[in-house]
Design goal:
The protein has one domain. The chain has four helices and no strands. The protein is mainly α and 79 residues long. Helix content is 53%, strand content 0%.
Length: 79
């Protein structure tokens, strides 16, 4: 799946500001705040019953891109 240019630009800016942050949800929140609503539909939502997050393929690709940019492997804490 291709990642839109706007999302890559925002991810680059966030990677420079986030320091050594490793929590995917922190990065995701920053991305969602910086993107128009039309692009937010690419991201996963919480399970309505358990309220737990699950990564979709798009987010897995973003985490891989972020890792290549920064050397930091983002993780999802669902606990």
């Amino acid at each position: 799946m291709d990642i839109p240019k706007r999302i890559l630009e925002e991810l680059t800016i966030i990677s420079q500001l986030a320091g050594k942050e490793e929590d995917w949800m922190v990065i995701k929140r920053l991305l969602l705040l910086s993107l128009p609503s039309s692009m937010r539909t690419l991201f996963s939502t919480r399970d309505p019953k358990t309220k737990r997050q699950a990564l979709n393929d798009f987010e897995k690709n973003l985490i891989e891109v972020y890792s290549n940019m920064t050397g930091i492997r983002l993780r999802l804490n669902n606990g």
